[in-house]
Amino acid sequence: MKLKNERKRLIVFGKKMVAANLTNGTGGNLSYYNRKRNLIAITPSGVEYEDMRLEDILVLRLDGGIVEGDRKPSSETGFHLALYEKRPDVAAVVHTHSVYATTFACLHREIPPVHYLVGFCGKKVPLAEYATYGSNELAKNIRDSIKDYNAVLLANHGLVSVGSDLMTAFNVALEVEFVARVYYQAQNIGKPNLLSDQQMEEVIEKFKDYGPVKND
Ligand SMILES: [Zn+2]
Fold it and tell me: Which end of the chain, C or N, has fewer beta carbons within 10 A?
């Protein structure tokens, strides 16, 4: 079995995604790109994380060709592959439908630097234009919006986050959801004070030295 260890990690983080309320049922998907072996492990379409077995995970090439697995790969395989192609620093992609991030995605509003933890993503959380789920157009919109950010809101859909390993990509998704919730709540009471460009630069610089934790 190819990428056995990576398959195990995908199942662990799929369950974490459900436990952290970042998605439910079979929603969302995850992948890991072993760049040395040039192989991608990705979750299947329509299997609950709770029931997912190692053999349910698919192994693909960067062109989408299936190397191992009988299941149907995630319906969002297209944008996972597009992100690996676009960003050489990325080895893990996590896609969620977390409620607060998705709320802003439905308003077509980016998340500004309302809390320093936005720095997990960059100086803001950008937004990719709407396209039908699973479409080439959606993959293109995400590819165009990701730039150097570590996450993108998908209009009327959800969130995708990236990282050099699964733990990092998962933590980005978790922190973006936290910040989205805080932003939503703060706006219900008043007008949130945003951090300045300079303040965010300092945070991002500091994260480079001390975290987010980068081990997988
Ligand atoms: Zn989705």
Answer: N
pTM above 0.85, yes or no: yes
The CA dihedral of 132, 144, 201, 158, to the nearest 10 degrees, is 10
Sign (positive or negative) of CA dihedral 169, 22, 42, 10:
positive
The alpha carbon of 190 and the centre of ligand 1 are apart by a number of angstroms equal to 31
pLDDT tens per residue across span 170-193: 999 999 999 999 999 999 999 999
Number of structural domains (the chain) is 1
Q: How far is the CA of 158 from the centre of ligand 1 (A)?
A: 6
Of 118, 128, 113, which is closest to residue 196 (Cα–Cα)?
113
22 alpha-carbon distance from chain centroid:
11
Q: If you measure from the C-alpha of residue 133 to the centroid of ligand 1, how many angstroms do you get, rounded to a whole number?
A: 7
On whether the CB atoms of residues 80 and 139 are closer than 8 A, the answer is no
Return the pLDDT at 215. 47
216, part of any domain: no
> Measured in whole angstroms, how far is the alpha carbon of residue 103 from the centre of its chain?
16
> Pairing between strand 58-60 and 127-128?
unpaired
CA 23 to centroid of ligand 1, rounded, Å: 9
Expressed as residue numbers, the domain containing 58 is 4-210
Catalytic residue ranges: 76
